[in-house]
Amino acid sequence: MTAYEILSLANEYENALISTLMGYASIVSAFLVAAYLVADKLNRSMTILLLALYGVFAFQISAHGITKMLDLANVAHVAAQMAQDPNLNSVALYMLNSGAVNVYPYGVFVYAFIYVVSFAGSIAFFFTMRRQITK
């Protein structure tokens, strides 16, 4: 692959990752609003159903986001190997020398941490609202 194709592929993965993260943020925000408005009004079976649906969708989107981050890390690794070539043009050197390729392998852990903390925090918020409003 040429340097332009590698950079284009990295750009597409970044866009897919950002849209996945925004989808996850939308699901978490909708769950938080629902928890605030109806947590005390749900019976046990509806609570289990809501938490199960939220868990499935949140897991699916977070797994998709982590997969995209891993793909982006692989593309960044290929780009870092290409940076050793002295005949690269200036477009390729812009990204390769910016330090962005060194961030992507660690980004997997950062995104996984964001997904886990936001999921656990939203579940804790749900039960906190359920307990506070019921009292």
List the helices and strands and how they pair.
Layout: H1 3-38, H2 44-82, H3 90-96, H4 100-134
Tell me how many strands there are.
0
Largest sheet properties = none
Radius of gyration, whole Å: 20 Å
> What coarse outline follows from CA principal-axis ratios?
rod-shaped
Tally of helical runs: 4
- Could you tell me the strand content as a percent range? under 5%
Provide mean pLDDT, rounded: 82
Distance between the termini: 63 Å
| Helix/strand class | mainly alpha
- Integer tally of domains: 1
Oligomer: single chain
Low-confidence stretches: none
N-to-C order of helices and strands? HHHH
Polypeptide structure, described:
The chain contains four helices and no strands. The radius of gyration is 20 Å and the shape is rod-shaped. Helix 1 (3-38) runs antiparallel to helix 2 (44-82). The chain has helices at 3-38, 44-82, 90-96, 100-134. It has one domain (3-134). Helix content is 87%, strand content 0%. The protein is mostly helical. The mean pLDDT is 82.
